[in-house]
Every structure is written in structure tokens, then in C-alpha cells.
Design goal:
- By secondary structure, the protein is mainly α.
- Among the domains are: 89 residues, Arc Repressor Mutant, subunit A (Orthogonal Bundle); 80 residues, Arc Repressor Mutant, subunit A.
- 47% of the residues lie in helices and 8% in strands.
- The protein is built from 8 helices and 6 strands; from the N terminus they run H-E-H-H-E-E-H-H-E-H-H-E-E-H.
- A hairpin with a 6-residue loop joins strand 2 and strand 3.
- 26% of the residues are buried.
Length: 265
């Protein structure tokens, strides 16, 4: 098996969409290459396990090794993946060529990978999860990388990146998937605040409601809600990290078995 990667990159068509299976497989290859480089390139067994793991993935899938092999053939045709033979010649391994096909920065590669693996998510979640692969120190750093990805059409958002609660997604969907989230981008008024319905002014005979006494209470409620959401997110992160550690242990155990086989044990 060999891949024709000698043709100039500008002769290859631009990749604008990937199937669900292609997104999962290429996402796992990039993620594992960044988070566990000592086990990369991946064996078919490790790649299949990475596709099927429950943490840091949405939706959950149950691919067979034959399924993954079929997708790898498709990705190789696109110039996104290649097979690598070990020195012993016993085990084929697979690697990605995302850096050859796209001009992503390293943070952009991590961002796109995270979106391919989990889909649409909030800015804070995206930064925390992508930072497992490449450091992204702040939301401002994330916004800077996202602006570049949005200009080239690889990423979409539900509104201006400065707006609170905005969500981000990749743009590699097929048109038939109907996954565009661009519709409400222009509904945001100037200043980055959500527009609320205007209430009629009170009539001269109506006593205005005094809101000043409620403002500290409302502010405190908002603070508690924010803290609760942050704790829920951190708890979910810990569960995801635990699941990832279990997956890494399985990968290490697989590598140990291969080493023992190579040594004739």
C-alpha cells in the first residue's frame, strides 16, 4: 500500500465537506497525534477504539475495523491520510496529512479537530477542550484564531464572537445535513447585546415599578447561576478526562501487546 502524495497541493481540489465518518476518523488521528504522540501513527485497532470512545465525542458511534478501513481509503484519496509501515513490517499504522492540505495554525488545527469530534459548542467549552491539544491561553486568543477560520469559511458561528453565549461549529457539513448556524448572525444589534422587546411606556396615572431594590438580588442570582454553570462544566471536564485516561491506558496496553509480539514473546 502506498499513497501518491507527490502531486502539488495546489492541484488538489479544496476540501469543503467531509462525511460524518470521515470527520470522526480524521479527527481522532489529529487528536491522538497531538495528545499522545508516543503512540502515533495509530494502528487500526487503536484508531477504531479512538473513534468509538465515549469521552470527547459526539455522537457516540460503534465502528468496526472494516468500517474504519473503508473511511481511511476515502481519506487517502483526499490526501488527508496515509499508511505507514513499521520496521518489522507486521503492523500497518495510519497518520493524517491535515497540515499538508490546509494552512491552519496549530491552535486552528486543534480548534477544527475539536469541532469535528464534538460539533457545535460554546466558546468556553471549545477553548478548554482544544487546549488539551494545543495551548489557547484566553478567549481573546481563541477569537483571534476563529476570525481566521471564519474568513476562510472553515468555521461558522451563531453570532458575533464578542457576544455572550455565542456558539461555534465547523463548516465541513454536506448541504443535505442542514447544519448552518449563520442565520442569526445579523440579528444582533450594534454593541453586542441581545435586543429585547420594547415595553410600552407607563401611562401618567401608572406608578412605575421600583427596580432599584431588586437589582442587587438579580445580580447575585446571576452570579450564582454563572458559578453553578462553571462547576457543572468543570465536573463534566473531569469525567471526560477520566474517560480519556482509561482510553490512553487501553492504547498503552495495546502498544505493550504489539511490542511483546514484535519481540517474539
Amino acid at each position: 500500500m502506498s499513497d501518491d502524495l507527490n502531486s502539488p497541493e495546489n492541484e488538489r481540489p479544496t476540501i469543503t465537506e467531509l462525511s460524518k465518518q470521515q470527520r470522526r476518523v480524521i479527527g481522532v488521528l489529529v487528536e491522538k497525534g497531538l495528545t499522545t504522540p508516543e503512540y502515533y501513527p495509530l494502528t487500526l485497532k487503536a484508531l477504531t477504539a479512538g473513534c468509538n470512545q465515549k469521552s470527547n465525542r459526539y455522537p457516540a458511534v460503534h465502528y468496526s475495523e472494516d468500517d474504519v478501513l473503508d473511511v481511511l481509503d476515502e481519506l487517502r484519496e483526499l490526501g488527508l491520510a496515509a499508511v505507514v509501515h513499521t520496521e518489522s513490517g507486521r503492523t500497518e499504522r495510519f497518520r493524517h496529512y491535515m497540515r499538508k492540505r490546509f494552512t491552519f495554525t496549530e491552535p486552528q488545527l486543534a480548534i477544527v479537530t475539536e469541532l469535528l469530534l464534538r460539533g457545535r459548542q460554546a466558546m468556553g467549552e471549545l477553548r478548554a477542550r482544544a487546549s488539551r491539544m494545543v495551548p489557547i491561553e484566553s478567549l481573546d486568543d481563541l477569537r483571534q484564531e476563529l476570525h481566521g477560520l471564519m474568513e476562510t469559511g472553515f468555521v461558522q458561528s451563531s453570532g458575533p464572537l464578542e457576544r455572550r453565549g455565542v456558539e461555534i461549529d465547523h463548516n465541513f457539513y454536506a448541504p443535505s445535513e442542514n447544519k448552518s448556524i449563520q442565520a442569526d448572525v445579523h440579528s444582533e444589534p450594534t454593541g453586542g447585546r441581545l435586543e429585547t422587546q420594547r415595553q410600552p411606556a407607563p401611562s401618567p396615572t401608572t406608578q412605575p415599578v421600583a427596580h432599584d431594590s431588586l437589582e442587587p438580588i438579580n445580580q447575585r442570582i446571576a452570579e450564582l447561576q454563572s458559578v453553578t454553570q462553571q462547576l457543572q462544566f468543570e465536573n463534566k471536564q473531569l469525567r471526560d478526562e477520566f474517560d480519556t485516561l482509561k482510553q490512553d491506558y487501553q492504547t498503552l496496553d495495546d502498544a505493550f501487546d504489539r511490542l511483546r509480539q514484535d519481540l517474539g514473546g
